[in-house]
Amino acid sequence: MSLSSDTTLIPSTAAGTPGGWPPPPVTVPSHAGTNSWLGWTAATVASIWASVAIISVFAPDMISGIEQQRMPIAAFTTWLWGLGGSVASLVPMARLRTDVGRRAFWIMLSGATMAIWAVAMLVSVFGPTMVTGSDPTTIPLAAMIAPVVAMLATVAAGIVAVVANGLSRPPRSIW
Q: Taking the model in full, what pTM does it have?
């Protein structure tokens, strides 16, 4: 039995007609992807602020002095780095939004940012603390450093996504 004699494998209708073979190419409308971009951007910013909230609540406190006074240093500083991380993710997302064909770039940027802040949250909450002195002073180094590193990594991920998007386009003619 040859493939050309079996009519059940290849439909007999004309190409391009409904049910025909090969199927017509899929066309993407110019407005497609707007909701996708908005959803990924909202998820990115929400994940940053969820991480900031969890770090602020559950990160170890700085304990110092003879009376062992507690100061939630992470709660005082993390929101600033979260704000910087939000801006650092929104700016490249806005630049990538202009081209629906480059949807993979904003999805990768969003996923990378979510992963960066999830790792920062885990390191801040479960990371080591430094204990010094005869009156044990506890300094939560991980809770102080991880949000800063997360913001810088978010900036780097945004730069990589924007540069990769520019490099993936064909060169423009100056004429």
A: 0.75
Judged by DSSP in three states, 15 sits in coil
Give yes or no for a contact between 150 and 81, defined as CB atoms under 8 angstroms apart. Answer: yes
Other CB atoms within a 10 A radius of the CB of residue 10 amount to: 11
Which helix (H) or strand (E) segment holds residue 139: the answer is strand 137-139
Cα 48 to chain centroid, rounded: 9
CA 140 → CA 65, 74, 109, 125, distances in Å?
15, 8, 29, 9
Beta bridge partners of 14: none
**What length does the chain have?**
175
**Per residue in 108-135, pLDDT tens?**
999 999 999 999 999 999 999 999 888 8
At 49, list the tokens: 């602020």
DSSP string, 63-84: EETTTTEEE-HHHHHHHHHHHH
- Give the max Cα distance, the chain: 92
* Identity of the residue numbered 132: T
